[in-house]
Design a protein that fits this description.
Muramoyl-pentapeptide Carboxypeptidase, domain 2, coiled coil, alpha+beta, STAS_dom_sf, 4 domains, Beta-Lactamase, 5-stranded antiparallel sheet, 16 helices, PAS_4, 19 strands
Length: 486
C-alpha cells in the first residue's frame, strides 16, 4: 500500500493532514478541507457540497427546465455562470501559470478535481482571436445521462465565453458541439470566436420573445374567456331565469336578470355590491337569508317559494339556493336561481278546484246511488239501480245503517227492480247488507227480484233466499201496512 502511494505521489503529489476532526487533502491544484464536527466541506477555501449528479441534482434542475423551457434555462445558467470569470482569468494568469494556456489547464485540473470534467485547450490563437475548448466527461452531460429532458452544457458554455473573452481581449461567443447522447465517454467542444452576440443581449431578446408569446397566449385566453362569458350570458338569457350570486355576507356579487323579469328586479349595475335586503323586498330577503343559513349548516341545496305583487295580481316564484365555491379565491357564497312558476301554480290551483268539484259531484252521485226514502215513520225504502260492486255495496251499507239509527226504523226494504245482473259477488253483497240491517234489530225485506236474477241467486246458493222477498215494492209496502194494522 505504501509502495502504491509512493508511485502515485511521484506522479501526482498528494498531501493529507488531519487535526482533530478537520482533514485536509491537497491533490494537484485541488485543495479540500473537511470539518467533520461542523458537517462542512471547503474547496479552495469556499463552502462546498457534494451532490449525486443523477438523480439528486438532475431532479432539482429538471422542474425548472420544464417550467421556463430549455432555451431560457440555458441562457439563464450561462449568464450567471459567466459572472466572476474576470477573477477566474486573473487567477489563471497571475497564480496558476505563466501564460494563459498554462493557467487555464491548471484551472481545469483544479475544477476537474471537483468532478467538472477533463479540460483541454487544443486551439488558442490570440492573433485570430479564436480558440477551441474540449471538456471530456463534463458534469452536465453526466447528469443528463439516460434522461429524457436534456439541455446541454450551459454552465460550462457561460464559463468558457467569459474566460475566453478576457483571454482574447474581445467579446466572444462559443458554439457548443455535443457528443452523441449517452456515449460511453461523453464530451463537449466549444468553438470560440469574436461576436457581437452577448449573453445579456440574448437574454433580453429571449425574454422579449417570451413576453410576446405570453402576451399572445394571454390575449387568446382573454378572448376565449370573453367568448365563454358571452356564451354563458346567451345561455342564461335563453333560460329566462334570474341567476345571481351572494357572498357569505349576503351581498350580490353577480346578477343576471332577463328582460322579461326586469319588472321584478333592480338593474344589475345598481344591485351588485349591495346587500340582498337592500335590493329585494324585506319579506323575500328574509326568506333567502334564512335559506342561506340552513344551507351553511349542511350544504344541501334549498328551494324556497314566494309571491310578488304585479299588475294588481300576484306572480309566483320558486328559487333554488346552492353552495358556490370560487375556484381561484376559494371564497364561499351562494348561487341563487329564481324561476317564475306562476303558470304552473295557477294550473295547480285550477286542478285543485276541479278536484274539489269532482269530489262534490262524487258525493252527489253517491247520494243518488243510495236514494234512501222514508216511506212512513219507521219504514225505509232503498231502490237500487245498476251494478253493485264492493265499493258501492259498502257505501249502501254505511248509508242505510246510518239512516236506520237516525230514524229508528223498524223495517228496511231493498228494491232490486233496477238490478239486471247478479253474480256471486253481488249476491254476497246483498246478503251482507241484509245481515247488517238485521243486526240492528230491523227487519229487512227484498222486493223486485227479476226472474233471471232469482234463478242466478238460486244456482249460486248464496242463502239470500232465506230473506223475506216480494215481487214488487208495492207488495212489500202492503205487507208492512198489514203488520202495522195487526
Amino acid at each position: 500500500m505504501q509502495d502504491d502511494l509512493s508511485r502515485d505521489t511521484e506522479e501526482k503529489p498528494v498531501t493529507v493532514k488531519s487535526v482533530g476532526t478537520t482533514h485536509t487533502l491537497e491533490l494537484n491544484q485541488g485543495r479540500f478541507r473537511w470539518e467533520c464536527d461542523r458537517g462542512m466541506l471547503f474547496t479552495h477555501g469556499l463552502p462546498s457540497v457534494l451532490f449525486w449528479l443523477n438523480p439528486s441534482l438532475y431532479r432539482m434542475l429538471e422542474p425548472l427546465v420544464n417550467e421556463v423551457g430549455v432555451p431560457l434555462f440555458r441562457l439563464m445558467v450561462a449568464q450567471h455562470s459567466s459572472m466572476g470569470t474576470a477573477e477566474d482569468y486573473d487567477t489563471m494568469v497571475t497564480v496558476l501559470g505563466k501564460t494563459f494556456e498554462e493557467g487555464f489547464l491548471a484551472w481545469g485540473d483544479a475544477v476537474g478535481m471537483g468532478g467538472w470534467g477533463r479540460f483541454e485547450l487544443p486551439v488558442f490563437d490570440k492573433e485570430s482571436r479564436r480558440a477551441v475548448v474540449v471538456v471530456r466527461n463534463p458534469w452536465e452531460l453526466e447528469m443528463q445521462r439516460g434522461s429524457t429532458v436534456r439541455w446541454g452544457c450551459p454552465f460550462l458554455q457561460g464559463k468558457i465565453i467569459g474566460i475566453l473573452s478576457h483571454a482574447l481581449g474581445v467579446n466572444c461567443w462559443a458554439d457548443e458541439l455535443l457528443s452523441a447522447p449517452d456515449e460511453a465517454q461523453a464530451s463537449v467542444e466549444f468553438r470560440v470566436y469574436p461576436s457581437d452576440r452577448t449573453l445579456d443581449a440574448e437574454m433580453t431578446r429571449l425574454r422579449l420573445a417570451h413576453h410576446e408569446e405570453a402576451k399572445r397566449k394571454l390575449e387568446e385566453r382573454t378572448l376565449e374567456l370573453r367568448q365563454s362569458e358571452a356564451q354563458q350570458r346567451a345561455i342564461l338569457a335563453s333560460l329566462g331565469e334570474v341567476v345571481f350570486t351572494l357572498d357569505e355576507g349576503g351581498r350580490l356579487t353577480s346578477y343576471h336578470v332577463p328582460k322579461e323579469m326586469s319588472a321584478f328586479h333592480e338593474a344589475p349595475e345598481r344591485a351588485i355590491g349591495r346587500h340582498v335586503s337592500d335590493v329585494m323586498p324585506q319579506r323575500i330577503a328574509a326568506v333567502l337569508l334564512g335559506a342561506m343559513a340552513d344551507l351553511a349548516r349542511d350544504g344541501a341545496p334549498r328551494t324556497v317559494s314566494y309571491a310578488r305583487e304585479h299588475g294588481g295580481g300576484e306572480r309566483f316564484f320558486s328559487t333554488k339556493l346552492s353552495i358556490l365555491r370560487e375556484p381561484v379565491s376559494g371564497r364561499g357564497g351562494v348561487t341563487v336561481v329564481e324561476r317564475d312558476v306562476t303558470d304552473r301554480v295557477r294550473a295547480e290551483q285550477a286542478l285543485t278546484e276541479r278536484l274539489k268539484v269532482i269530489e262534490r259531484q262524487q258525493e252527489m252521485i253517491q247520494v243518488l246511488s243510495t236514494p234512501i226514502i222514508q216511506v212512513w215513520d219507521g219504514v225505509l225504502a232503498l231502490p237500487l239501480v245498476g251494478v253493485i260492486d264492493s265499493r258501492r255495496a259498502a257505501s249502501i251499507t254505511e248509508s242505510l245503517l246510518r239512516e236506520i239509527v237516525s230514524t229508528q226504523a223498524r223495517v228496511a226494504i231493498l228494491d232490486l227492480t233496477g238490478v239486471d245482473v247478479v253474480d256471486s259477488a253481488i249476491a254476497d253483497h246483498f246478503l251482507r247488507i241484509v245481515r247488517a240491517v238485521e243486526l240492528l234489530g230491523t227487519t229487512c225485506l227484498i222486493s223486485g227480484i227479476r226472474p233471471a236474477v232469482a234463478q242466478t241467486m238460486t244456482q249460486l246458493g248464496t242463502g239470500i233466499e232465506k230473506a223475506r222477498t216480494f215481487g214488487t215494492m208495492r207488495a212489500a209496502l202492503m205487507s208492512v201496512t198489514r203488520r202495522r194494522r195487526a
